[in-house]
Fold this protein.
Amino acid sequence: MPDASPTKWHLAHTTWFFETVVLAPVLDGYRPFDAQYAYLFNSYYEGLGPRHPRPLRGLLSRPSLDEVIAYRRHVDNAMRELLADLDEDHPSAARTILGLNHEQQHQELILTDIKHAFFSNPMLPAYLPGQLKGIVRALSPAWAHFPGGVVRIGHEGPGFAFDNESPRHDVLLRPFRLALHPVTCGQYQDFMADGGYCRPELWLSDGWVLKEREGWTAPLYWLQRDSGWHVFTLHGLRPLNPAEPIVHVSFYEAAAYAAWAGERLPTEFEWEAVAQQQPVAGRLLDVNRLQPGASVGEAAVEQIYGDVWEWTRSSYDPYPGYKPFDGELAEYNGKFMIGQTVLRGGSCATPRNHIRSSYRNFFPPSARWQFSGIRLAGDA
Ligand SMILES: [Fe+2]
């Protein structure tokens, strides 16, 4: 798949980011490890020169993994030298912290990209060995009610945030409801059984065209076997657990499901207003369990963080007064603020200290290979 990259590329690219954005501007006499790597491992920075086409990253048999690891050691050593006399006011401090947060984003992408690569192998290999235990428990849809009003949205320090989370600003919300749980696989099966993929009245126009072209009849990674639906996970192929959150659906499928349920998706502002009231906790990155799990509670809004990224009904736009990062880093986020949709809350593959209530993830509405799921909302 053109969107996915090999693990070796991710490692080299995050290394290149530290080398180019943090080290080169401030270390006198710093010599890049290999002058060719800027072309191979620049992802999308037009201001930093031409680059290897993304769909061809999987063909980079050289440099070898050993060479990429040597590259990493070289940059690690230079970073150690820089960090030895770095205080928080040093201009490189902010860029180092950005480099670390950038690397966390790629840690999640490594997992979603491996998952897609393994699914593309007819042997369906498991990334993690061993059985995953899951509870099976039917939940009925239930809601929490919120009064709306003027809410403060966006990052409020201290601590790191990306430029796209600022400035903090007022948003007026009408009274609304938010589902206590993400939509489950069992609920999504009801949508499928009711002709969800065959009813144009439920679909956005672009989504219908894409679904027809791609032949979608179920979420990504669902496979029909004699004994029923199975789901491919990083733990291998497993029988579908109807109690687990639905995952690996596009925004278009999420929107069609919401239309079928007679509800809607939340705006990113409704989502954030609720998430601000909750501690960051839940099923986030755990190297032994890389799959969303069923909810156990019924009294409050559950699983707002972790498990699955939740598609919102908000397009990825700049906040009023938005200023991109300086210099070449202006390309980090701002230039993608067109044609993409915001997801919130993190997933089972998101590093725990990477997520917060103001965090804005974004993907094209067609994307399905991230751990993307659905939480419904409605007007009060
Ligand atoms: Fe990157």
